[in-house]
């Protein structure tokens, strides 16, 4: 009923309900991973986002310049936002993955990228019904 008071261009056709992840993670990285899961789920791009993040994590492990750039506290956030958008375009990454990188750069949280990716991978494993376990045997 409240939509009749809004101009037509303010009413969104996008599903605004939050898609809850199959498991709840806590901390900063958990919040970002859960938000990414919700956004990617709404867009039906969960698998694409997961592949993007795995690819990005591989690049982070091998590219020392990118690691230094992410960890450098002296660089302005606006410069980091522009740079990560360029990286996302070159890789290329889908929109939710690109938005995550830009948001992390804008909020000064790029240092947490690796743990956020690991948290998202944990959520996706739970989404697929995978259970991580450790088996100890006597030899």
UniProtKB/TrEMBL annotation:
GO molecular function: proton-transporting ATP synthase activity, rotational mechanism
InterPro entries according to UniProt: ATP_synth_OSCP/delta_N_sf (IPR026015), ATPase_OSCP/dsu (IPR000711)
Pfam families assigned: OSCP
Recorded GO CC terms: mitochondrial inner membrane
Coiled-coil boundaries: none
Keyword Ion transport: yes
Keywords carried by this UniProt record: ATP synthesis, Hydrogen ion transport, Ion transport, Membrane, Mitochondrion, Mitochondrion inner membrane, Transit peptide, Transport
Subcellular location: Mitochondrion inner membrane
UniProt keyword Transit peptide present: yes
Domain of life: Eukaryota
Cross-referenced PANTHER family: ATP SYNTHASE DELTA CHAIN
NCBIfam families per UniProt: ATP_synt_delta (TIGR01145)
Stated family: Belongs to the ATPase delta chain family.
Name the UniProt record assigns to this protein: Oligomycin sensitivity conferral protein
Taxonomic source organism: Timema genevievae (Walking stick)
Lineage of origin: Eukaryota, Metazoa, Ecdysozoa, Arthropoda, Hexapoda
